[in-house]
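Q: What does the assembled structure look like for these inputs?
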Amino acid sequence: RRGEMAKSTQLIDNEVFRAYATYTAIVLLKMMLMSLITAYYRITRKAFVNPEDAASFGKGENAKKFLRTDPDVERARRGHLNDLENIVPFVGIGLLYALSGPELSTALLHFRIFTGARIFHTFAYLLPLPQPGRGLPWAVGYSVTLSMAYKVLKTAWLL
Amino acid sequence: RRGEMAKSTQLIDNEVFRAYATYTAIVLLKMMLMSLITAYYRITRKAFVNPEDAASFGKGENAKKFLRTDPDVERARRGHLNDLENIVPFVGIGLLYALSGPELSTALLHFRIFTGARIFHTFAYLLPLPQPGRGLPWAVGYSVTLSMAYKVLKTAWLL
Amino acid sequence: RRGEMAKSTQLIDNEVFRAYATYTAIVLLKMMLMSLITAYYRITRKAFVNPEDAASFGKGENAKKFLRTDPDVERARRGHLNDLENIVPFVGIGLLYALSGPELSTALLHFRIFTGARIFHTFAYLLPLPQPGRGLPWAVGYSVTLSMAYKVLKTAWLL
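A:
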């Protein structure tokens, strides 16, 4: 049927792809939020790395004392880098996974667990929770990406 | 019409997707340029982090003195990391946005503003410009990605 | 022919796209491996950055002495960041390249050289090999991405 074909030519009409788009947008927005959290800590803790940023908060010698590291700023930055290290593989492998023809329910399970795990990971990092409060959600998200990579390689394998 | 369908099956023939491909390639090439800028500063300032790199510029104790940080190197590295933090969401959300059926003119507006903002951001970081010379282009790029994410979630929403 | 059209509507049935999916999954899995290597060095060298991580290896003052940097940990982290800087452009530009209609043999050549170069780069970084043992595979991977970007811009150009 023409409708069927037209449907399959529009990626965004495919339900698995729509789910991928939704969770990828959410998880990338969550990653972007780390920039605001870092900026918030930099401003409230008055801890900057660029002299031109510190200059907004004082002049001359007074500005120099704001060129320092702060534990909360560094923690937010580590959370941000950890997001990059884990969300980039999810976005890349997840796209290929969404195109490899998984069941919608299986795909949703992967996307939901990953997204939940990464949101929990951020709270665990920022609070911080004692271990394995942060290690566990990290491992869960990592495993979801591995599971999607397995499906991609099984479906697409062409070396 | 067959032509119409054939067109829609080839992503690269879709004008919005072509615009996405063009600006994504440009902005990723700009990010890759940061590696060369960092390498340039490392070599001209003789400031390395790996002993095997410093060894090319001196032997023994002489090489050790090149294992140091340099303000220009660190500045280029921060610009590179800021690119990763902002260009990765643009590439991921931008792809979904391009597939969500926006008007070509609206899509071009998003892609052009983001690309211009990030190129300006790099100049502002490296010169450096006084604030808000760097903060403003950062916020503009960030807002463009938020706007695309809104369109993606409105079109694709399937939780 | 219907078969032909159906084929082109399913990205994952396209041979160039299958090759892209295979190599992208491999190279992202390789990048994810860096997390495990960093964790391995942190645990065996007892060198942590988060107090809540060090707390698993000692109490009070005893835990504090594990809050330190270690050369092997830092080396693995630098390798991980270098992967992000280089594999992100490959994944993004590679997707557009795969959709720009290259010959399968040409595409495979690009994907294989990039993947081989990045695996070699990781060994060169971790061992470490003397230069240009690490610089050369870095430049090879970088050049492959530039070559793909050229093809993308030539095919898709719409500014």
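The radius of gyration of chain B is 20 Å.
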